[in-house]
């Protein structure tokens, strides 16, 4: 038994955990007081599909919805019949019902540019946007994508144009990156180096120039060696131009954080029935509770099921082994259509032992009963593998439920194909609303 199994023994049938409460999503998305739904979780668990399916379902139930996604594969746009998504919400066609569905894809750099343009005059904005250090920062600073997702959410909510905003959080390694981004960017903006670089501009006048001449000259040589003279100059120019907007970052981050805590916001933690994904989901549930943010429940994607689960893996393997070890019959003689045995002493009057060796060559006759036995054995082994998979998934769900029995769960079946149109998203939405895994219909995937 592995150390992990020692820590998490499988519950016996007599002590199996009570099932988690079922997450009913229709009342959540129908409630006019629900204005924001945030789909969060680790990367690769189906957040984008979940967000799009919920958005479509809410729209077809009468609400005006915008889905904000951060999806490098741009599969959402294809599913919604839109050639491309960008930083502007675009209406999705062929939505049934009286509601509306709009979709957009976060353009991280463009969102950063919009912040600069909104909080600086034209001359200063141009200086910032053209600054090499800013261009590098806006394109790839760690945490910028998560921060800009929150910034765009704040912008959309302030417009008050949509009944419901569904957010697909960035595909980060950790689900916590979305909540940590404002603090990380704020720490950068409040860091010692930035404070030192902004001090001359804040002092102003002669005092500022005196500080610049004395203090900056002392550190310029050292920083110039570390950063390079041109980069240091770019940073100083950027900081001087951005000085008036630094406070705005912190203010807006705080405002968006409060928006996420407010009534009308609901978090859906999305995971797959795998140990790492559910462990990440458990961390996120605990973080939401610590931050007093409203959790609606857990969406568990790619759950496997079987209508034949009454046949255990152990019984299936035993039956397969029995079939595979049956004594091979002698080769059937098909000559003249008679069912005799080739080399049989009774047939030919020979005293030689019958030939029971396997047939060789493409023209050798095959015993159909033996073929059926081997095919059946193979199917039984496939079934056993399926039962072992179901058992592993059940153990991971049991661990999560034991740790968080209060969290409601909606399960979506593992499906065979990709979502490629609105019909696929509609099917996923139906399964989400049902809150239980169902046998898949071909052509869609909850990925």
UniProtKB/TrEMBL annotation:
Q: Which GO terms describe its molecular function?
A: ATP binding; ATP hydrolysis activity
Q: Where is the composition biased (Basic and acidic residues)?
A: 327-336
Q: What is this protein called?
A: Anion-transporting ATPase
Q: Bias regions of kind Polar residues — which residues?
A: 344-359
Region labeled Disordered — which residues? 1-26, 327-370
This protein's source sits in the domain of life called Bacteria
**Database matches in CDD domains:** ArsA
Q: Which Gene3D superfamilies does this one have?
A: P-loop containing nucleotide triphosphate hydrolases
| InterPro entries xref list | ArsA/GET3_ATPase-like (IPR025723), ATPase_ArsA/GET3 (IPR016300), P-loop_NTPase (IPR027417)
Q: Where is the ArsA/GET3 Anion-transporting ATPase-like domain?
A: 34-309
Known SUPFAM superfamilies for this protein? P-loop containing nucleoside triphosphate hydrolases
For this protein, the record's Pfam families field holds: ArsA_ATPase (PF02374)
């Amino acid at each position: 038994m592995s150390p992990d199994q020692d820590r998490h023994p499988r519950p016996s049938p007599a002590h199996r955990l009570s099932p988690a409460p079922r997450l009913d999503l229709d009342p959540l998305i129908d409630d006019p007081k629900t204005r924001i739904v945030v789909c969060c979780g680790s990367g690769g668990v189906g957040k984008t599909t979940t967000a799009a399916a919920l958005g479509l379902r809410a729209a077809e139930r009468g609400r005006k919805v915008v889905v904000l996604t951060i999806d490098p594969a741009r599969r959402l746009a294809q599913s919604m019949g839109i050639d491309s998504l960008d930083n502007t919400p675009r209406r999705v066609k062929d939505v049934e019902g009286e509601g509306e569905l709009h979709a957009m894809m976060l353009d991280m750099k463009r969102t950063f540019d919009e912040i600069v343009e909104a909080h600086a005059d034209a001359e200063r904005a141009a200086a910032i946007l053209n600054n090499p250090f800013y261009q590098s920062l806006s394109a790839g600073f760690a945490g910028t994508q998560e921060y800009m997702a929150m910034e765009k959410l704040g912008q959309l909510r302030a417009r008050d144009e949509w009944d419901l905003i569904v957010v697909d959080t960035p595909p980060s390694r950790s689900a916590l990156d979305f909540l940590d981004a404002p603090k990380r960017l704020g720490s950068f903006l409040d860091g010692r180096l930035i404070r030192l670089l902004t001090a001359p501009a804040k002092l102003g006048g002669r005092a500022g120039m005196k500080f610049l001449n004395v203090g900056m000259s002392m550190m310029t040589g050292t920083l110039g060696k570390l950063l390079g003279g041109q980069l240091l100059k770019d940073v100083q120019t950027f900081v001087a131009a951005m000085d008036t907007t630094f406070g705005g970052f912190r203010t807006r981050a705080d405002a968006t954080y409060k928006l996420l805590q407010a009534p009308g916001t609901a978090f859906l933690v999305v995971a797959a029935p795998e140990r790492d994904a559910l462990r990440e989901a458990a961390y996120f549930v605990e973080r939401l509770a610590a931050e007093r943010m409203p959790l609606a429940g857990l969406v568990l994607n790619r759950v496997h099921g079987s209508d034949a689960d009454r046949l255990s893996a152990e019984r299936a393997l035993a039956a397969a082994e029995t079939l595979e070890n049956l004594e091979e019959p002698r080769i059937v003689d098909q000559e003249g259509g008679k069912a005799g045995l080739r080399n049989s002493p009774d047939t030919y009057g020979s005293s030689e032992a019958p030939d029971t060796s396997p047939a060789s060559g493409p023209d050798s006759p095959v015993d159909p009963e033996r073929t059926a036995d081997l095919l059946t054995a193979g199917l039984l082994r496939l079934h056993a593998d399926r039962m072992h998979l179901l058992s592993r998934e059940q153990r991971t769900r049991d661990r999560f439920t034991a740790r968080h029995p209060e969290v409601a769960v909606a399960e979506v079946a593992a499906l065979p194909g990709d979502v490629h149109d609105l019909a696929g998203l509609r099917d996923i939405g139906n399964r989400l609303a049902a809150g239980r895994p169902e046998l898949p219909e071909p052509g869609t995937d909850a990925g």
